């Protein structure tokens, strides 16, 4: 089981090398991450975008992209479609968002003709290394699904479980988060948490253990759980934190990053291949971490 971001990068060096295609690759931080990933031997890379601008950025910043294949496509929408199509046709095993809007690349991913549809919900999975904990946390979904219902939450969990398995967490413990630990008919998050727990018990959600509802303290702190008298296989030892909606997930993720200085990686799961989709504000280190995570997920498929 991998317990740190650095271990993710080291493991990515050991699995069969994957080919990454970047849509609209003319982005400084993206090129920094991709060039480092190539030099570390994590990926082979195909850069789709404005070739002149890509080379200008690389030369100006000193990024070595000599081993990268460049496909000149100045139209960002066409660059996204070309990148996704290459993954769909087996020319690459994962796709990364460059200097293009999230909606535009996801539109290509979901295209009925050249896209990466599976029929499942797409969801964002963040992997977090937080000082003071000897494990990685997976947080989902703070970036894509606004207010998922029970069926969507089940699929979001299953997507996160597939990422956990790629990290060597054989039976991840899932905590559906809520404000309280008891089922309250007036709080939909608690009802969904209880139903998800039962669905896992009945084998409707596979490869994990789910127990909830759990408040955040009881999900990650054994001391807090014991203090409240909570007896649970998940309480105090959660691997996956399932948030009730995008606001809770976004606030929790950014709080961990900016207040706790967490190291991060993230991708979109639920498609035929990993989609490395990072924020414009993410550092190139976070983008490199996300590439490495995508490589492990692609290799594990």
From TrEMBL:
GO terms for biological process: butyrate metabolic process. Keywords: Acyltransferase, Transferase. Pfam families: PTA_PTB (PF01515). GO terms for molecular function: phosphate butyryltransferase activity. It comes from the Bacteria. InterPro entries: P_Ac_Bu_trans, Phos_Acetyltrans/Butyryltrans, Phosphate_butyryltransferase, PTA_PTB. Transmembrane segments: none annotated. Residues 6-76, 79-293 form the Phosphate acetyl/butaryl transferase domain. The keyword Acyltransferase applies. The keyword Cell cycle does not apply. Belongs to the phosphate acetyltransferase and butyryltransferase family. This is Phosphate butyryltransferase. It comes from Anaerobranca californiensis DSM 14826. The lineage of its organism: Bacteria, Bacillati, Bacillota, Clostridia, Eubacteriales.
